[in-house]
Amino acid sequence: MAGANAQLVLRAIDEMVEYYQNDDITLARELRWMGIILRRATIVPAEEKRMIEERLSMYDDLMEKDPKMRKIRAESEARGETRTLRMTILLLVKGRFPALVEQAQQRVKRTTSVDELKQLFEQLASASDEAAVRSLLL
């Protein structure tokens, strides 16, 4: 990015739009990479970065349609949901049956399906005693 300024980068964006006019997915990917590089660059002044980011944001819809971006987002959401469910289950067990926390940790670690974790949470939440919880965790 040495020597880059808003005028140069904005012209590059215009040229990319022209070049990839019939290939929205490739354009979206290239603009995404440009945004990543721009955000990491320290040589471009903040005000110029803001102007460039504003221009790049005009193409956010293209990026939303990019199959790779959709896949990355879906995987990220699934990981987040899995992490949240695991933590919720552990907090539930810790609050109600602290002696079973270690077993709960082992169980949630080996359970990767969001649906299985949801089902486990529901079962644990309605379990009436430690024996019932222990059997669910085995």
Q: Number of folding domains? A: 2
Q: What spatial form do the alpha-carbon principal axes imply?
A: elongated
- Please report which band the strand proportion falls in: under 5%, 5-15%, 15-25%, 25-35%, 35-45% or over 45%: under 5%
**Could you give the count of β-strands?**
0
Percent helix range: over 70%
Number of H- or I-type helical stretches: 8
Give the termini separation.
Answer: 56 Å
Largest beta-sheet details = none
- Rg over CA atoms: 24 Å
Look at the helices and sheets and give the structural class: mainly alpha
Low-confidence parts: none
Outline the structure in words.
The radius of gyration is 24 Å and the shape is elongated. By secondary structure, it is mainly alpha-helical. It is built from 8 helices and no strands. It has helices at residues 6-19, 24-40, 46-57, 60-65, 67-96, 101-110, 114-126, 130-137. The longest helix is centred in the middle third of the chain and has 30 residues, at 67-96. α1 (6-19) runs parallel beside α3. It folds into 2 domains: 6-65, no CATH class; 76-137. The model has no long low-confidence stretch (mean pLDDT 88).
